[in-house]
Specification:
InterPro entries: Beta-barrel_TonB_sf, TonB-dep_rcpt-like. One of its GO terms (cellular component) is cell outer membrane. Keywords: Cell outer membrane, Membrane, Signal, Transmembrane, Transmembrane beta strand, Transport. This is TonB-dependent receptor. It is found in: Cell outer membrane. The protein is mainly β. It is 6% helix and 57% strand. The protein has 2 helices and 30 strands. It has a 22-stranded antiparallel barrel. The radius of gyration is 46 Å and the shape is extended.
């Protein structure tokens, strides 16, 4: 029985091992399953926003406090305040009249009277009369003594009338200037030549008036200005000139900027001009100058800019049309201390007898001057405020000028053909010659208020000229300088000093280039205030008595001085 059990167990074990071996062999077989089933993995569900936990437990703040009061003894007792009283001191009187009278060597006499109305709410006007004359002997280069005679007179009335939202301004004036051509003649041989300018005296008369109407609205509203101008000029030899015109401007706010428009129209007629190359003495010239200048101005903080264009046209004699840029900008580099500025512009100058004679009165009568065009001018510089009452400026410019005129003795001036008619003799009077000009200039200016008593001022300018045809820029200096100082010694005494320096200037004499010596004019002055009504003063110029020529052939006065008084009443 035992043996059967053992045998049965062995058989069972053997069969199990066989079956296991067979299963292992079957698992190694390759099984291919054919079906349309494609397994997919379901998208996982994303967890939403973080759950909000609301705390249902609340706490109530509860404070328990108490103040123990205690009285303090204060000994302060308010005092009585006295009632205000009106001051009995009189107001400082305002004076409407001033009168200035002075005299000096060279028979010099100066008088000036001014009147301004007082205590008017809507109208202010004034009257101004001025006389200046000088007469004394001078010595020319050839040791000839001459006696210049110079007189000037001015009378003008001006005023403003204020409306509710506008202002009306007017001025009417008359002035004259008389003098003689005392300068030395540069012609060496006058035989067989005719002097068509055989006069020695000259007199200029000028009468003019202008009126302007200007609105005074808020900056956001339209503001405009309209004006009319009339000027009549004559000399002692039937030469006359009429200048009349209208002008206007308008401004309107546009966002952060300002639109502006300026325009003018001038009509000029000159009679009895002299063409010295043909000896034509009764030539008339009529010209009109029209100008229009639109621009846009914008201000952003410390930045200011102007963008514009200027169009100018001459109609009539010497017709011409020019278009110029009009660009300006300024920038605050350091607030209240340092500013920078720059610009690009140009201009057409319609030269007239009046404008030329104001620069050099010794031109011959009936001089016809052509127009001058500054094709472009580039400039820039810096302004700085040193202190509350002190400042400095540095600037430079470069300009291209077409048809610039230069003064030259008439017997040295050139015609368009390059020479003068042999029968013509021009004595000691000036004409002009022309050339295109390039110039670069540097300017420095300093104004120092060192303290309440002392003020110093200085201005220096250097200019370099480059010309196309002429040898030099006749009568134009390269360097100019002016310095002034004033010192308030006491409430009554005021002292001042001045130095004027003009560098050497090239000139043309008898067909040869020469130079005028530099001018150094040093002067001193003093003023004593007697009271609110009367003050006395004295001035001395050209203290070193240096020989000076503002114009070739015309020496200026030596040491000269004036003593005067000023009345205010």
């Amino acid at each position: 029985m035992r043996i059967k059990s053992i045998l049965l167990t062995g058989v069972v074990v053997t069969m199990c091992l066989f079956v296991q071996a067979q299963e292992q062999r079957d698992l190694k077989k390759e099984v291919k399953v054919r079906t349309n089933f494609k397994p997919k993995i379901k998208k996982s569900k994303r967890i939403g926003e973080m759950p909000i936990v609301v705390d249902t437990v609340t706490f109530k703040k509860d404070f328990d406090y108490s103040i123990r009061s205690k009285s303090l003894n204060v000994n302060f007792k308010p005092g009585s305040i006295q009632a205000a009283k009106m001051s009995t001191a009189p107001l400082k009187k305002v004076h409407g009249h001033t009168f200035d009278l002075a005299a000096g060597n060279y028979a010099t006499l100066y008088a000036d009277y001014r009147y301004n109305n007082l205590q008017s709410k809507k109208t202010d006007f004034g009257l101004h009369l001025q006389h200046y004359s000088s007469n004394g002997k001078l010595e020319l280069e050839d040791n000839t003594k001459v006696k210049p005679d110079w007189r000037e007179f001015l009378a003008e009335i001006y005023g403003n009338h204020y409306l509710d939202d506008a202002k009306l301004s007017s001025r009417i004036f008359y002035k004259y200037k008389t003098f003689n051509y005392y300068g030395s003649s540069l012609s060496e041989n006058n035989a067989g030549k005719e002097n068509i300018f055989d006069y020695n005296d000259q007199k200029f008369n000028e009468f003019g008036l202008n009126t302007t109407y200007e609105t005074l609205n808020d900056a956001k509203d339209l503001n405009y200005k309209l004006g009319v101008v009339f000027d009549y000029f004559t000399d002692n030899y039937n030469v006359s000139e009429v200048d009349m015109g209208v002008n206007g401007s308008a401004e309107m706010k546009a966002g952060e900027g300002l639109w502006s428009l300026e325009s003018s129209l001038d009509f000029i007629q000159t009679n009895n001009l002299v063409y010295w190359d043909s000896k034509l003495k009764d030539h008339d010239v009529r010209s009109s100058l029209w100008m229009v200048n639109p621009s846009y101005n914008i201000t952003l903080g410390g930045f200011n800019m102007r963008l514009g264009v200027k169009a100018q046209a001459v109609l009539g004699n010497d017709s011409d049309f020019k278009l110029y840029p009009d660009f300006k900008l300024s920038l605050v580099l350091v607030d209240r201390i340092l500013n920078m500025f720059a610009g690009l512009d140009g201009n057409l100058d319609l030269n007239t007898i009046r404008s030329i004679s104001e620069k050099n009165p010794f031109v011959h009568s009936g001089l016809d001057v052509e127009n001058t065009s500054t094709n472009y001018r580039v400039y820039g510089g810096f302004k700085t405020k040193i202190s509350e009452k002190s400042s400095a400026l540095f600037s430079m410019e470069y300009a291209n000028i077409e048809n610039q005129y230069f003064f030259s003795m008439a017997n040295d001036a050139l015609t368009s053909e390059g020479d003068l008619p042999s029968q013509t003799y021009y004595s000691n009077k000036y004409a002009v010659v022309y050339d295109d000009l390039y110039k670069i200039g540097f300017t420095g200016e300093l104004d120092l208020q060192l303290n309440e008593e002392l003020n110093l001022y200085a201005l220096a300018k250097y200019t370099h000229y480059s010309l196309d045809g002429l040898e030099e820029a006749w009568h134009m200096p390269n360097f100019e300088m002016e310095t002034r100082a004033s010192y308030q010694y006491t409430d009554q005494w005021l002292f001042n000093a001045r130095l004027l320096f003009v560098g050497k200037r090239p000139v043309m004499t008898n067909g040869k280039a020469a130079q005028l010596d530099a001018i150094a004019d040093f002067g001193l002055g003093a003023e004593y205030t007697w009271n609110d009504i009367l003050s006395l003063y004295a001035n001395v110029n050209n203290i070193f008595n240096s020989e000076a020529y503002l114009w070739h052939g015309y020496p200026s006065q030596g040491i000269n001085g004036m003593i005067g008084l000023k009345l205010v009443f």
